[in-house]
Amino acid sequence: MTIQDILDQKGCRVITTAPYHTLDSVLATLIQNSVGALVVQNRAGDLLGIITERDLMREVYNGTDLRAACVEDVMTRDLVTSNPDCDIEYVMAEMTEGRFRHMPIVDEVGRLAGIVSIGDIVKAKLESAEEEVMIYKDFVTLDWRAS
Ligand code: AMP
C-alpha cells in the first residue's frame, strides 16, 4: 500500500500557515480544523517547515507569550517529506525513527501534495488487516463447502 492510496481516501487538502503568523493564530487554526500540524509556506508556496501541537505545548510550558511569538521563532525547519509513491511501511519507519507524527507529501516538482499523520497510517493498516481477514474467511468458507 502506498501513500497515494491514503491520499485517495482522505484528499490532498493541507492546512498551512505563514512564518509571520502568531502562535495564538496557529492554536486557533489547529483547533478550528481539528488537525495537529500546520505546514509553513511562504507566499511563493515554498515549504519552510512545520509547526505542530507539540511545539506549541513546549512554548506554553516555557511561558512564551503566544500573541507575541511567531511561527518562524518555533517551527521545525529541517522538514522530512515523502512522496505519494512511498510505501506506508517506509513512512511509518521514518516517523518512528524521527519521533514525529506528521509527514508532508510532495510531488515530483516539490509541490505540497498532501499530509499524512500517524493516525491515517494506523487507520489504513487496520483496514487492510480487516480486508485480509475477510479474504481468508471467504477462502476457508469456500474451501470447506467444496470439500
Ligand atoms: P509531532 O509528533 O508531529 O507533533 O511533532 C514532533 C516534533 O517533530 C515537532 O517539533 C514538530 O515540529 C516536528 N515534526 C513534525 N513533523 C515533522 C516532519 N515531517 N519533519 C520534521 N519535523 C517534524
- Give the beta-strand count: 5
Bound molecules: adenosine monophosphate
Helix content: 40-55%
Please report which band the strand proportion falls in: under 5%, 5-15%, 15-25%, 25-35%, 35-45% or over 45%. Answer: 15-25%
Enumerate the spans where pLDDT stays under 50 for 5 or more consecutive residues. Answer: none
How many domains would you count in the coordinates?
1
The structure class reads alpha+beta
Question: Could you explain the architecture of this structure?
Answer:
This protein has 6 helices and 5 strands. The protein is α+β, with helices and mostly antiparallel strands and 147 residues long. It has one domain (3-146): CBS-domain (Roll), CATH 3.10.580.10. A 3-stranded mixed beta sheet has the order 1-2-3. Strands 4-5 form a two-stranded antiparallel sheet. The two termini are 34 Å apart. The site of adenosine monophosphate has 17 residues, from strand 3, helix 3 and strand 4.
Summarize the structure.
This protein is α+β, with helices and mostly antiparallel strands. 49% of the residues lie in helices and 16% in strands.
Name a few traits of the molecule.
alpha+beta; 147 residues; single chain; 49% helix; binds adenosine monophosphate; 6 helices; 5 strands; elongated; two-stranded antiparallel ribbon; CBS-domain
